[in-house]
Amino acid sequence: MPVQRSLPLLPALLALALAVPVAAQDTRSAQPPRITVRGEVRDVSTGAPLRDAVVSLPALGRMVGTDDQGRFVLREIPSGTQRWIVSRLGYASWDQEVDATEDGAAYTAGLLPRPEVLEGITVVADRFETRRRSAGTSVYAVERTDILASAAPNALEVLPVRTGMRLLPCNSRNPDLGCAMVRGRLTRVAVYIDEEYAPAGLEQLRSYQPHELYMIEAYYGGEVVYAYTTTFVETLARTRRSLAAVAKVRMRGTEYPGMGLDAAEDDGPARARAARERERAREREQTKQTP
């Protein structure tokens, strides 16, 4: 006979219902049993299923995105009370302690929409599409649905899976992935995160988890990469701010904003040499100007 329970919820944000047989527990074991939790996320106002919502258990480092029907499955999680966060772009997040102790528990989560953000996101999405069409070059766009489905541990590892980019170290002295093969040439990739130049390049993407990102774009065959977080896109949606123009593709001997060195030389020793050369050039110029 199924058991019906209700859990304490934040008002108007989440309704939880579970109806499952009581799972057998091994009281002799010190470790809690592992269970599977299934559920769906819906718009609390309309009841419509929400795709691309994220259900996360921060203490366990576990998260899952919802499919087209708003459904999710979390497998092999320890039975017991965990902090759950349910979020989606354009909706108020829900953050609550949930006591999940029964295998097969089914949850229905209702999130409260933020209409001004949802309307703005439609405008922002159109602007992204317009910018890609007018770029005059090949563009790989990895949308949020594909980012969440990639199962990559961080944003950097989404790129080769979803764009086909071949990421490589720029030189033998530095094993970090900073370059890519672009048109048959090893090229340092310029990275912009939320329209700010990322000095650490591709490696800076490692610090972002996939669920934090709204979109990744790769321009000029992968020579320029833009990554946008959901937080930044929500700001764009609220303010209706325009997108920045795409950085111009760098030719040999030119630079991207903030890069400071040619792609072939951009490593630690080269930076030091370039700094010394600039200092000597300033000293020579000062010598010339001294009467």
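Next protein, fold it too.
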Amino acid sequence: MKRAGLQTITLNRELADAVMPERWASLRLNLDGDQAIMVAARGITPVLKFALEEARLRRGALYVLYVKELAVNLPARIDPVERPRWQDDRRAAEIMYGMLETGRENGVHVVPIYSISDNPAMTILDLSATLGIDILILGASHRQTLTSLLKGNVVTEVASGLPENIQLVIHG
């Protein structure tokens, strides 16, 4: 015998909760354009390639941040005559020029950011929030380095202070 129409079935509460579409709303993919991605770079490492790939996939701008760390915390702020420029820092310039060129070749808008700070973690947090970054990417050159970083330095400080609306990706 063939039945027409709807059939009613009874489910227990756990199964009903498991298939509720509202629970899966937070897992919807967000690949819309205009996402802002920031990568904090200390050298030419694989994290830069990963960040470029993410920016291209997500069709978003890639902010490349280089923080030159001051070894000494001065008691008073010294105002330089000129604002520091990444073009004048050999290590930063190598990264920025390379990323600008690679971004141009791959259709990724790269925005170089250069900062001098005695507290790189706070600088990264401040710039991430100020620029409205959606995804912050930090890297380590080796997995062992990553493990030691997680025990108490810049990555840990950034992770603990990052607002919930900014995703953190640690690549290494």
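About the second fold: Residues 20 and 166 are 26 Å apart (CA to CA).
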